[in-house]
């Protein structure tokens, strides 16, 4: 770090590490300020499934997949029923293909395109991942690479508590506070707020998204809305504060993610009446509030050996199975017994969904099936969850935080959960990857913009 302070302060070592690495590789002196000593095993990036959308990447082209910003923006438009931020969707689409290639070529991650499962809402396969398909491996690699970079310093644990603007309204310094309460002022012309959203602030969650407030919060305990509060105090605009990623398949027994690959490969979800209650393939996020509204706010994901085997590439799925959360039964009646669900309903749903999967009847919720479920059956009891919030500071096409008149606050950038995302309102607009795409994409973009002056 130079005597007159870093060129860029990155607050938050989740997706923010992408910004730190990109900026350092461009020759900038970077200071990463991170609130938690245990960030590699606690923040959202460390918990994720590592599905990173990259639009128009060479990994797609190698498989003959044509993708474009127009196609991604249209997917966002459809999933959010016209309410998603189109400027940001195009911005993220345009940067994301280049970014996943950079993650492979310059950061050294073993990136590949995921094609064995098609995430709901994406009209082409565009989620890139790493062999482990888990955030632990992803963040370990990012943190190790950043810590060994000569142009990146870390201040951990230390919390960004304020940002100062000069007389012209541009960023000139940050205030960081250590756990003892001691504060330090650090001069810098630029700061990236990568502090995630406000999922851990129960009052804010209850205010903005009451339908999911009683569900399990399965996200970082340090997502306290710091970026939103600091930015708002500086005059920034905020948007989509009711938006969030929910999930309908957190295993009740182990508090691990069962995962939606089960559903996409053909599993069904039953509530405690033994009945299906919505189109499972619409998306996992909306199943958070759907399940929260069912009797007892719990349900069962039912699948078979074929689905079980197809889900093996997912660390989360394997951990759920290893925890003992999965139960097996030889037929529908035995499944009802082992789950405690009403036998008539379970038998009827398995029969009906198998008929629909074979094309003999129309599915009553309009879903399609990869294949019919065959006995023996497996089931995992699931509960609804909130993973992270998707509303926050409004950013422009350069990841700059803007005010209510869309004027950038010079030197102030935001990414990930600290920024407003592209998921529109509520839970239903969330497309797979809408978490990491702005977390990594906006951090990458901010660093590029700062480096280019
Ligand atoms: C189980 C699970 C699976 C998921 N899978 C996917 C997926 O496959 N694809 C996808 O796109 N999204 C996924 N998501 C969502 C995704 O993980 C998040 O959207 C994304 O990681 C957010 O990144 P971030 O940088 O904003 O926040 P984080 O990764 O949480 O990083 C923020 C960091 O900021 C620190 N911090 C907070 N306040 C301060 C402060 N004041 N000063 C300094 N530091 C501070 C925190 O300690 C934390 O380390 C998943 C989420 C969960 C829970």
From TrEMBL:
Q: What is its EC number?
A: 1.3.5.4
Q: Name one Pfam family in it.
A: FAD_binding_2
* Sorted UniProt keywords: FAD, Flavoprotein, Oxidoreductase
GO terms classed as biological process: steroid metabolic process
Q: Which residues form the FAD-dependent oxidoreductase 2 FAD-binding domain?
A: 7-428
Name of the top EC class for this enzyme = oxidoreductase
| Cofactor(s) needed for function | FAD
According to the UniProt entry, its GO molecular function terms are: steroid dehydrogenase activity, acting on the CH-CH group of donors
Is the NAD keyword given for this protein? Answer: no
Which PANTHER family does UniProt cross-reference here?
3-OXOSTEROID 1-DEHYDROGENASE, FUMARATE REDUCTASE
Q: What is this protein called?
A: Fumarate reductase flavoprotein subunit
Q: Supply the source organism's classification.
A: Bacteria, Bacillati, Actinomycetota, Actinomycetes, Mycobacteriales
